[in-house]
Request: fold
Amino acid sequence: MTHVVLTGFMGVGKTAVGRRLARRLGRPFIDTDQLIEEAAGKPISKIFDEDGEDYFRDLERRIIAELEPDTPAVISTGGGTFANATNRKRLEELGVTVCLMTKLETILERVQRNDRRPLAQGPEGRKRLERLLKERMPSYRKADVLIETDSLSIDQSMQRVLNMIEPRLKQGELGEQAGQTGQAGQADHAGDDEE
Reply:
């Protein structure tokens, strides 16, 4: 089953683009940050404030490890999720990984309007984001597809993602169909032996 996994730094548009892409593909949308909030019973900003980043990252790893959608889905991950090798391996197993990228200035403009991003807050917010982006960039570059979204609308970004992943999705569907045909063929053949 080929899922579409969106990754990238905070503020690049993973949730907005992911929702539109899911609607366009007729797939469910899964936001791992939302799953983490549901598991913790509180918003991510409170998890960071009350329990710390280490607790958040442990919970994030558990959520990613247990992620097993029943049908092909579009999955949006948190900004640091793909930087963890264990998470990255699991997400790669789930399907095609797409990293949305944009300039730091655009990220800063977007995240400073949102107080739900604990790592972007405070007087050191800009320096922290610069450092995190630099640290995470090598991991982001390991995604199957890298897409620059600077100056693109949500719809334009979604279309760019779709254009890049459609061949992979079709290839995945063909592989699944071949696997099902092979299994059916084996079952038919096994039935012939019983006669």
User: Anything to note?
Assistant: Confidence is low (pLDDT under 50) at residues 177-195. Helices lie at 14-25, 32-40, 44-51, 53-66, 85-94, 104-111, 125-140, 154-194. Residues 3-163 form a domain with the Rossmann fold fold (CATH 3.40.50.300). The first helix runs from residue 14 to 25.
